[in-house]
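User: Here's a chain of 387 residues. Predict its fold as tokens.
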Amino acid sequence: MRQKLVRVIGGVALAGALVLGASGCSSSEDGGGSGSDSKCGLKIAFFGALTGDAANLGINIKNGAKLAVEQYNEKHADCKVELVEKDSQGDEKQAAGLAREVVKDSKVVGVIGPAFSGETEASGPIWEEAKLPIVSPSATRPSLSTKGWTTFHRALANDDAQGPAAASYIKDVLKAQKAYVIDDQTAYGAGLADVVKQNLGSVVAGSDKVERNVTKDFSQIITKIRASGATAVFYGGYYQEAGLLAKQMKGQGVQATLVAGDGVNDPGYITTAGKENAEGSVLTCPCSPASAAKGSFVTDYKTKWGQDAGTYSDIAFDVANIFIKGIEGGNTSKAKMNEYLKSVNYEGIANTYKFTDKGELDPSFLKVWAFTVKGGAVTPDQEIKKQ
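Assistant: Prediction complete.
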């Protein structure tokens, strides 16, 4: 009887322990987002193009984020964080549906992305309704922070900084008296080109529009560029069409310098244009050169991926670590993570990150750089200081 009583008491104690243990990992409903009270097994989502005509830019971001997550997991093998990869193909028409897939997963407490402005605009209401915080390392359309979204954050300067900087470079460095402006009619390309035109003022000798993934023949526009007398051409859009434009400009004897924004700041531009045709092009970015990142990032990235860090790889690495730091601090639900981002002040390998109440990067940390194509490679030129 005594042994039987001991076994019964022991069984009750064990059952109680299991119940308590289970409750320690139960879902948390803290008024805005589901998640787990445990720091282990939570997820961060990458949202951007991994395939498609502008996939290089998304892959840069995914690889930077993945490096951060894998480095963390190596040191915390018993309590890992998972990176979920969502390929948007850079298509804003797919963005809302893909976002709905992400928000269904209660273990996702933050999103790195969306990568492009159009897909961010299309999916923004989904993130907001689910109260799932997003931090884009690359979407630059200024109006994204004017929608009243409480979940939106941007880890770089927007085009209200990049546009004036590009215009300043055209006027003050290239000394262009006439410039021709073209955009691809996307949320990103058209928005950036409009800001550039506003800041170029009377220097604009003409403008035109093309269609992303459709326009292949630029001959009519090139005829207009030649007639305008422009010595600089600004292109608002992505690297595939920009490469075709540069190739056809040189093929038709137009020597105007092609200037473009961060959507073209990728070796894919040189591949499409050809080294000789891309030579001398100027590519801006609201970011510092990834090659200047602090610590061992540059070496770690190349060792992991077999290539140099690309545009926004370093910022994505930082954004992933911001989320990881939040998880370590006990922000294990969407609501808690969103509150954490309101007060974050994180010194990363690419920049320091602090967000305004609209989700913009604090003005103290905004940067815009100009890069030039030299010897078949995108090379840092100079930081363009705010005028």
